[in-house]
Design goal:
The structure holds two protein chains of two kinds. Chain A is an alpha+beta fold. In chain A, 24% of the residues lie in helices and 34% in strands. Chain A has two domains: 82 residues, Gyrase A, domain 2 (2-Layer Sandwich); 75 residues, Alpha-Beta Plaits. Chain A is built from four helices and ten strands; from the N terminus they run ββαβββαββαβββα. In chain A, the strands form two sheets. Chain A has a five-stranded antiparallel beta sheet with strand order 1-7-10-9-8. In chain A, strand 9 and strand 10 form a beta hairpin. In chain B, 22% of the residues lie in helices and 28% in strands. In chain B, a hairpin with a 3-residue loop joins strand 13 and strand 14. The chains are: A alpha+beta, B alpha+beta. Chains A and B meet through strand 6 and helix 4 of A and strand 8 and strand 40 of B.
Chain lengths: 178, 996
């Protein structure tokens, strides 16, 4: 029997572009991870997808020797200085990529559904408080799950217009209730 | 109420009439109807003309396997679809439908002449007819075949609909919402697993919808069904109707196409038409049931001839009697229940002709009680009528002898040749099949994926057994997930068990050579075509299929494959498994391109990357060109200029004073670590050890084969830090190649790579006045030539922004490239543009960049190289660190064919008559040789040069470096052009301008 009823959702999710923060890509040999963490005053988690935070600084483990670090803009220079001071003893790479990416925040009732439209990963299986490097449509993104329906997505700058255009389509689709 | 609608029957809504048109005539159906059921309710069986013979055809089935009732549907402007299955398309208000493959009308079709000329169209027709003479192919045969190919009109308008996609991860995916699938889903869900149940129909229930008289657990089957569905919902199962599992791929990845709006009168704003689901399931339960087989006899395609089970569906699910007086021909018990339901609903069944001699006594008794004439041991030898069946000829068969026939009047003929388990999705997984000699059908055997198969899909019959089997499949899926399921039983009363025998074409006393006994309705393949193919030497079913086109239509032989195999096996005198079964391929049913495209149409067709400066260029009216995924400003036309004029102005302004260029798309890689210099030495051809911090060098990257892969200027910022630039298109490839070597060959090196392409926005300023423009903006750096010579790099402040400033040039002029954090890219651009006003600074695009670099002979990787060009070929020997022990590609550079003198080498070309050469044009050394001429090379770059006042070109020519001053020839359609071989460094060969 044909159902001719639809549930409309006026605001399936809220999309915000967050202000710039300090971003770094950190690489160091696993054997020197702990020493570098101490030198930088950060916890560098060992499981991929795991996060840590200290003050306004957040760390996401992306690989056995790779971390993404977000800091407040004001704390950027201190982190760079700490890295430079430790470099001779603990060789590593701390590259500033603050302008490489722009962060979108998706939150609200259907934020997770919106991501599943084009993200092949099992989004629901990412525990709250963890993250992942994954794909949004054909753009590589870092996905941070802050709540059951609260996500941040770091998108490379030039990919942002495409990502937003796809999200606009998904919004229209979800609003239709079908 | 329509003439053939039975009040009180079916699941349609009698209070909700739906109006639609077919071939311009208005009809009324009911909500819940398909186009086919609504037309049948109005007594219309004739719905189309067949593909090859243009024979009149009506629906033979009630489902997605339909080969005949293919119609054009229009859901409004731009929303025309050909080959819609009338048995699947649900009615919606105002739906416009039309028959296909007819002219001038469905009832009188000129193309039906093919039917009388059928001898011309036998198996292998194309191969036999279109071979000779050879000269006929291009002008006669191919146009004829193309005109005749395909069924239905292609849409001509842009599809205005939107399509969507979704990824879904689940524990259990159950495919098929019949009794078995429902049972499996319920057991799995109650074990705590996440379960998705999908069905291609508008509602769940499968054959239960066509069998309301069966009682399960003391309730009618429909009440039981409703109860199970509410239990499934309560258990959290996601129920998806109108959703076809189209393909089953590796690691339990299943594609589902969900139809969202085609059935809606008024789709909500913005609703996608279809959504493609990409499902990854831990366990898949295949509960797709079985498809009924037609019987093969002369005239088995006449409108009014249909599958018995489908007639039962039309009756019970849609409340439609398919005719006033039915005849039944069967080799399976299931058709008896159709006959009984028809009579019980007040219809008339003139005869049941059973090919079997013995029939279950309870069926015989039930037929007798209803007054149905039962003829066992009978065959059907032909049907009567033209646009609708009027009668059927039945003959007794005794000891293989066909007796005298007699005509029995009827307006529908319901046939059943038994049931074929739906193995399509299982076959997608490359699971192996086994031949079951008893039921004479293929059954699933060895599984390659984590799946369970339940119910009629593995040859079981009757609701009791298939529910029990569904429960088992649910338990097995739960167990595989490490969960514990609980079995449940269902007491079935009035079950409809059944068996049958499998038939080849039915025996006949008429000429088999004239019989039009169809095996494949959609492709018009008859039994005699298959026998002919065997006679002409086809032995494998794969060859028979291609020779006859049996099973090659869009229905993929859902009805024809097994019948075709039975006939071919009989003709070969072999058992069917020895002849084989053709391969099923996704998608299970025809699927729209839109569903595959999803969101990728229009502006989001393909990802387009834009630089921070892109909005400024757009506002200035720049013309863009795509460069890999980027769009880049190609040129900036002013006051109606064409490209030629704009590029000439941009080049002139840059060489005369100063030009500016958005170079943000250049790939950038930060190479950092104590072993950075060692890594650079190994990757690039150039020596890096002695490059001092603060200096730059042109870097050349080869593949292991010694051919040029990429290039770019590389700056050493400190002892352990390099700022590498790559070509725009090569950025990701180069980073991947570097990471590959680092991780697999040199894991001992303490060096790390980070993509910084998007961290920096880059503006190139070139021209004699470049320093004058920048100097007022730069702080913290003495930009004088003495302090900051060509090929320098420094960190400083430009326009108040933190910057990495390079003194490099891709134009041959004094040049700088300023990198600032990308968020400031536009601000930097505007500041330089403002500061440059005093010098008439000119923004230029990629075309002028190409011209300016060509005037200097600077190569573009991918334009002047094609993956077979070595550094020597390109005249870049100087970029090789000869003293270096090794670098990627070094050994290959010594191979004999790489050092051979006759390789194609990059040179300049100047035409004698001043014409501009065409890029890609072939070059010959002797224009008077015989054709085909020996080609000596080709033009790689060619431009009009303002600076030189003439066109210039670059080319690769055999032994080109030793041909300086020689004349070569470029044959073109309008005559041969003569050109002189020169150096590629056309402009300012001493490089004085760089040193300004």
């Amino acid at each position: 029997m044909t159902t001719q009823r639809h549930d409309f959702n006026a605001q399936p999710f809220l999309l915000e572009e967050l202000p710039p923060v300090g971003r770094f890509s950190l690489r160091v040999r696993p054997g020197q991870r702990e020493a570098l963490a101490a030198a930088l005053g950060l916890e560098l988690p060992t499981a991929i997808g795991q996060r840590s935070s200290a003050g306004q600084t957040e760390v996401l483990c992306l690989g056995p020797d790779e971390w993404a670090i977000l800091t407040a803009e004001a704390e950027r220079d201190a982190l760079v200085a700490a890295g430079a001071a430790a470099y001779a003893q603990i060789p590593h790479s701390l590259v500033e990529v603050s302008d490489r990416e722009i962060t979108l925040r998706l939150s609200g009732a259907q934020a997770l559904t919106a991501l599943t439209a084009v993200c092949p990963r099992d989004i629901d299986a990412i525990p709250v408080g963890r993250g992942a490097r994954t794909l949004f449509d054909s753009a590589t993104v870092l996905l941070w799950r802050d709540g059951p329906q609260d996500f941040r997505m770091d998108v490379w700058r030039s990919f942002l217009p495409h990502v937003r255009a796809i999200l606009d389509k998904i919004t229209v689709e979800l609003k239709s209730g079908l | 109420m329509s003439r053939y609608r039975i009040p009180g029957m079916g699941r349609v809504d009698p209070a909700a009439p739906v109006s639609f048109t077919f071939d311009g005539r208005r009809y009324t159906g009911l909500r819940g109807d398909t186009v086919a059921s609504a037309l049948l309710a109005n007594g219309v069986h004739l719905m189309g003309r067949s593909f090859k013979y243009h024979r009149p055809r009506g629906p033979v089935s009630a489902g997605s396997e339909e080969p005949n009732a293919l119609i054009g549907t229009s859901r409004g402007p731009g929303r025309f679809e050909p080959n819609t299955r009338a048995t699947v398309q649900e009615l919606r208000q105002g739906l416009v439908t039309e028959s296909q493959n007819k002219f001038p009308s469905l009832k009188f079709d000129i193309g039906a002449v093919n039917d009388r000329a059928y001898m011309l169209f036998s198996a292998g027709f194309y191969y036999k007819t279109f071979m000779w003479p050879r000269s006929f192919w291009d002008k006669v045969y191919e146009p004829f075949i193309r005109a005749a190919a395909g069924l239905g009109k292609s849409p001509t308008e842009v599809d205005p609909d939107e399509y969507a996609s979704r990824y879904l991860h689940t524990d259990v995916l159950v495919i098929g919402g019949g009794a078995s699938g429902i049972a499996a889903a319920l057991v799995a869900a109650r074990s705590g697993a996440r379960v998705v149940l999908v069905d291609e129909n508008a509602e769940m229930g499968g054959s239960l919808l066509s069998d309301p008289s069966v009682r399960i657990d003391g309730r009618g089957s429909w009440a039981w069904l409703a109860e199970q569905l509410s239990q499934l919902r309560a258990a959290g199962v996601r129920l998806m109707t109108r959703t076809t599992a189209i393909g089953y791929y590796h690691q339990n990845f299943v594609g589902l196409c969900e139809r969202l709006t085609d059935h809606l009168d008024q789709p909500p704003h913005g609703a996608p038409r279809e959504r493609m689901w990409r499902v990854r399931a831990e366990q898949v339960v295949l509960a797709q049931g079985a498809l009924e087989k037609p019987l093969v006899f002369d005239g088995n395609d006449r409108p009014g001839v249909m599958l018995a089970g489908s007639a039962q569906t039309y009756l019970n699910r849609y409340g439609v009697k398919v005719g006033d007086c039915a005849a039944v021909v069967t080799s399976h018990d299931s058709a008896y229940y159709t006959a009984f339901d028809l009579v019980d609903a007040g219809g008339r069944v003139a005869v049941i002709a059973d090919t079997r001699d013995q029939v279950r006594p309870d069926l015989v008794e039930a037929a007798r009680r209803r007054g149905i004439q039962l003829l066992t041991g009978h065959t059907v030898t032909t049907t009567y009528g033209r646009l609708r069946i009027k009668g059927v000829r039945v003959n007794p068969v005794k000891g293989g002898q066909v007796g005298a026939g007699r005509k029995i009047a009827c307006d529908t003929l319901l046939m059943s040749g038994g049931w074929t388990p739906s193995l399509h999705l299982f076959s997608h997984t490359k699971g192996s099949l086994t031949w079951d000699a008893d039921s004479r059908t293929f059954l699933p055997n060895h599984k390659t994926e984590a799946c369970q198969i339940a119910g009629a899909g593995r040859g079981l019959w009757g609701y009791g057994p298939v529910i029990e089997d569904g429960v088992k499949a649910g338990l097995a899926a739960a167990e595989a997930l490490g969960r514990t399921g609980t079995a449940f039983g269902a007491g079935v009363e009035g079950d409809r068990p059944g068996t049958g025998v499998s038939q080849k074409e039915l025996p006949t006393d008429l000429s088999a050579g004239k019989a039009k006994a169809f095996v494949d309705y959609q492709n018009d393949v008859t039994a005699k075509d298959i026998r002919l193919a065997v006679r002409e030497g086809m032995r494998s079913i794969e060859h028979v299929k291609r020779y006859t086109t049996n099973g090659m239509a869009t229905d993929q032989g859902k009805m024809s494959n097994i019948n075709g195999l039975m006939i071919a096996a009989d003709a070969l005198g072999k058992q069917p498994p020895q002849v084989g079964l053709t391969t099923f391929r996704p998608p299970y049913t025809p699927t729209s391109f839109g569903a595959f495209a999803g969101y990728h149409k229009g502006a989001t067709f393909e990802l387009t990357r834009k630089t921070p400066i892109d909005p400024w260029a757009e506002a200035q009216g720049a013309v863009f060109e795509p460069v890999s995924l980027w769009r880049r400003a190609w040129y900036f036309p002013k006051g109606g200029e064409d490209m030629h004029a704009a590029v000439a102005r941009e080049c002139r302004a840059t060489r005369a004073s100063v030009g500016m260029f958005d170079a943000s798309t250049l790939g950038k890689i930060e190479v950092a670590g104590p072993d950075a210099v060692e890594f650079m030495n190994r990757m690039y051809t150039n020596p890096w050890t002695k490059l001092a911090p603060g200096r730059c060098r042109y870097g050349l990257l080869l593949g292991e084969d010694g051919f040029i892969r990429d290039d770019g200027v590389i700056g050493r910022l400190s002892q352990d830090l390099f700022h590498v630039t790559t070509t725009t298109g090569g950025a990701a490839r180069v980073l991947n190649m570097m990471e590959d070597y680092l991780q697999t060959e040199w894991p001992d090196l303490n060096v790390w790579l980070t993509s910084t392409t998007e961290q920096w926005s880059t503006v190139a300023v070139n021209g004699p006045n470049a320093r004058k423009v920048l100097e007022p903006l730069v702080e913290g750096l003495d930009m004088s030539d003495a302090n900051f010579p060509h090929m320098s790099v420094a960190e400083c402040t430009v326009a108040g922004l933190p910057a990495r400033l390079f003194r490099i040039s891709f134009t041959g002029e004094l040049g700088f490239e300023i990198n600032v954090p990308a968020r400031h890219g536009l601000a930097l651009w505007k500041a330089i543009h403002e500061a440059g006003r005093a010098y008439d600074i000119c923004p230029y695009g990629t075309e002028s960049m190409h011209v300016l670099r060509a005037e200097k002979g600077y190569i573009i990787v991918g334009q002047d190289t094609d993956g077979t060009v070595t550094p020597q070929d390109a005249g870049l020997d100087w970029a090789i660190g000869k003293a270096k022990k090794d670098f990627v590609g070094k050994r290959s550079l010594q191979r004999p064919d790489i050092v051979a003198p006759n390789r194609k080498q990059l040179v300049g070309l100047l035409t004698e008559d001043g014409t501009r050469l065409e890029e890609g044009a072939q070059i010959v050394l002797d224009p008077n040789q015989k054709t085909p001429m020996t080609m000596a090379g080709h033009v790689t770059s060619s431009y009009d040069s303002v600076a030189l006042g003439r066109p210039i070109a670059m080319a690769v020519i055999t032994g080109g470096h030793n041909r300086m001053g020689e004349t070569v020839h470029i044959p073109m359609p309008n005559g041969t052009i003569r050109a002189k071989v020169t150096s590629t460094n056309f402009y300012d060969p001493e490089g004085e301008r760089l040193k300004a």
